[in-house]
């Protein structure tokens, strides 16, 4: 893990120097769009919707589209004039009960590791959060933009979870008409809940889709169902085996030195044949 941010958690007169690490990573299976005929990658051009011409990166600007479809062009100077933050502080604003924060507000999770000088105040903050069963609401500047988040404890580590702003949570614009719900139906539903009740264990679940895709691709590679492209680095479509790869490296090195396994095998035979010929000639001379 690599620290992506360094700063300090501050609450009251206490400051805890910390490092920030991304707590999650995506394992989504990614595909490339390719030409079905030959496996070539599909490339996309930056084309202007008005004149149809391809646009260079240097000529691309940021634009804000209004509700009536007009476009407001924002220059680099405009963007530089916007409020930005570069503070290295995670400022604790207040400690609130954990059940007061809607999980829908949570966005990204980060682990906080204390610097050596901040180990003790880090432990004190961690224990205080556990004892109070509260989360610390904080403000922090990440990527030059101030965001709100919370600090909580997970497995003896303090976790920072950034949050979305309240106006970013959508309100459903539909109503649910359930009709009349009978007591017998409610009792049956409660019985079903009790039947399936249990404790959550994340290890009980796995990404079947990703595993199935990997198995499918592996079978196709072993079956030779691959397309050779200009970017292909392997000489064939077999599954790479470490031992086989090392052997090929050794063979390639021998070839570069002008050696080969065949030559090595022929050397003893040539020596034996030469020795036999000499022996035969000596015997003939003696007679």
Please describe what this structure looks like:
- There is one protein chain.
- With 287 residues, the chain is an alpha+beta fold.
- Helices cover 31% and strands 24% of the residues.
- The strands form two sheets. The chain has a seven-stranded mixed beta barrel. The chain has a two-stranded antiparallel ribbon with strand order 3-4.
What's the quick description here?
The chain has helices spanning about 75-80, 120-130, 185-195, 210-220, 240-255, 260-285, and strands spanning about 5-10, 15-20, 60-65, 70-75, 90-95, 105-115, 135-140, 145-155, 155-165. The chain is an alpha+beta fold and about 290 residues long. β1 and β2 (about 15-20) form a beta hairpin.
Give the arrangement of secondary structure elements.
Elements: E1 5-11, E2 14-22, E3 62-65, E4 71-74, H1 76-80, E5 89-97, E6 106-114, H2 119-132, E7 134-142, E8 145-154, E9 157-163, H3 183-195, H4 208-222, H5 242-256, H6 261-286
Parallel strand pairs: 1-5
Antiparallel strand pairs: 1-2, 2-6, 3-4, 5-7, 6-9, 7-8, 8-9
Largest pleated sheet: 7 strands, mixed, barrel
Q: Rg to the nearest angstrom?
A: 34 Å
Report the count of strand segments.
9
Averaged pLDDT, please? 81
Strand order of the largest sheet: 1-2-6-9-8-7-5
Percent of residues in beta strands: 15-25%
Structural class by helix and strand composition: alpha+beta
Q: What order do the helices and strands follow? A: EEEEHEEHEEEHHHH
What is the 3D shape? Answer: extended
Low-confidence stretches: 262-270
Separate helix tally: 6
Q: Span from first to last CA?
A: 84 Å
Q: Approximately how much helix is present in the residues?
A: 25-40%
């Amino acid at each position: 893990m690599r620290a992506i941010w360094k700063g300090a958690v501050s609450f009251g007169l206490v400051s805890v120097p910390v490092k920030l690490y991304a707590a999650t990573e995506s394992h989504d299976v990614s595909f490339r769009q390719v030409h079905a005929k030959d496996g070539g990658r599909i490339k996309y051009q930056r084309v202007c919707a008005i004149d149809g011409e391809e646009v260079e990166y240097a000529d691309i600007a940021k634009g804000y589209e209004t509700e009536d479809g007009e476009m407001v062009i924002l220059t680099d100077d405009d963007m530089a004039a916007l409020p930005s933050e570069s503070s290295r502080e995670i400022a604790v604003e207040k400690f609130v009960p954990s059940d007061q924060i809607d999980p829908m507000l949570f966005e990204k999770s980060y682990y906080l590791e204390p610097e050596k000088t901040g180990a003790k105040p880090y432990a004190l903050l961690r224990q205080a959060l556990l004892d109070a069963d509260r989360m610390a609401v904080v403000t922090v500047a990440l990527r030059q933009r101030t965001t709100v988040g919370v600090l909580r404890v997970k497995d003896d580590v303090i976790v920072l979870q950034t949050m979305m702003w309240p106006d970013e949570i959508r309100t459903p614009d539909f109503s649910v008409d359930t009709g009349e719900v009978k007591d017998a139906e409610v009792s049956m539903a409660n019985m079903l809940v009790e039947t399936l009740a249990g404790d959550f264990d994340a290890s009980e679940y796995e990404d079947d889709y990703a595993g199935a895709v990997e198995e499918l691709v592996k079978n196709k590679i072993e079956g030779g169902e691959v397309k050779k492209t200009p970017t292909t680095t392997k000489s064939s479509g077999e599954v790479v085996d470490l031992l086989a790869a090392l052997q090929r490296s050794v063979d390639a090195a021998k070839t570069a030195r002008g050696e080969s396994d065949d030559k090595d095998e022929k050397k003893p035979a040539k020596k034996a044949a030469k020795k036999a010929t000499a022996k035969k000639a000596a015997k003939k001379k003696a007679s």
